[in-house]
Amino acid sequence: METNSLEYDRSYILKFYLNARHFLTDGSYVGETHPHTWEFTLTIKVSGLRFVRFNVFEEGIDACLAPYRNKVLNEEPPFDVVSPTLENLVEEFAKNFYAVIEKAGGSLVRVEGSESPARTYAVDIRPRQANSGPTDADVDRIVGDVVDEMLAADEERAK
C-alpha cells in the first residue's frame, strides 16, 4: 500500500484539571466534604487539513471549569440539585464542553473524567438525530408510568 493513499481521522486529546471539593449524599446520609483534583480528558475530532488553534479549545474549556475551581461543588449549580458524583460531573460538563468545542470548529467525541488514577468514567458523544427515538429521560418516564400502572392494578385486584 502506498503511503500517499492513506486517510487520517484527526483528533486532539486535551486534558484539564479541576481542584474542588464535594460531599456525597444518600438519603439521610451526608458524607464528609473532601477535595479532589478531577482530570477531564477530551477527544476532539477536527476535519480536513486545516490548522486548528487548539488554544481556543483550551480557553473555552477553562472558562467552563472556572466557576467551580476551589469551591464546594454541592453549593454550585447544577450540583446543588444534581449530586456531584464522578458520573454526573462528566455528563453535566460534557454538555457545556460540547457547545464550546463546536463553536470553535471541532467535534467533541469523548469525555473522560478521573477522580483518581484508578477510577475513570467516560462518555462517547454523538449528536442526537432528529426523530431518533426516545431519550433516556423519556424511557425512564415511560417505564415509571408502566410500573405505577401495574402497581395500581395489583392494588385494585387485592381489594
General description of the model:
The protein has 159 residues and is α+β, with helices and mostly antiparallel strands. The protein has two domains: 125 residues, 6-pyruvoyl tetrahydropterin synthase/QueD (Tetrahydropterin Synthase, Chain A); 31 residues. The chain contains three helices and six strands; from the N terminus they run E-E-E-E-H-H-E-E-H. The strands form two sheets. It has a four-stranded antiparallel sheet with strand order 1-4-5-6, with helices on one face. A two-stranded antiparallel ribbon has the order 2-3. Strand 2 and strand 3 form a beta hairpin. Helix 1 packs across helix 2. It is flat. The model has no long low-confidence stretch (mean pLDDT 87). Belongs to the PTPS family. QueD subfamily. It holds the Pfam family PTPS. InterPro entries: 6-PTP_synth-rel_bac (IPR017543), 6-PTP_synth/QueD (IPR007115), 6-PTP_synth/QueD_sf (IPR038418). It catalyses: 7,8-dihydroneopterin 3'-triphosphate + H2O = 6-carboxy-5,6,7,8-tetrahydropterin + triphosphate + acetaldehyde + 2 H(+). It is an enzyme of class 4 (lyase).
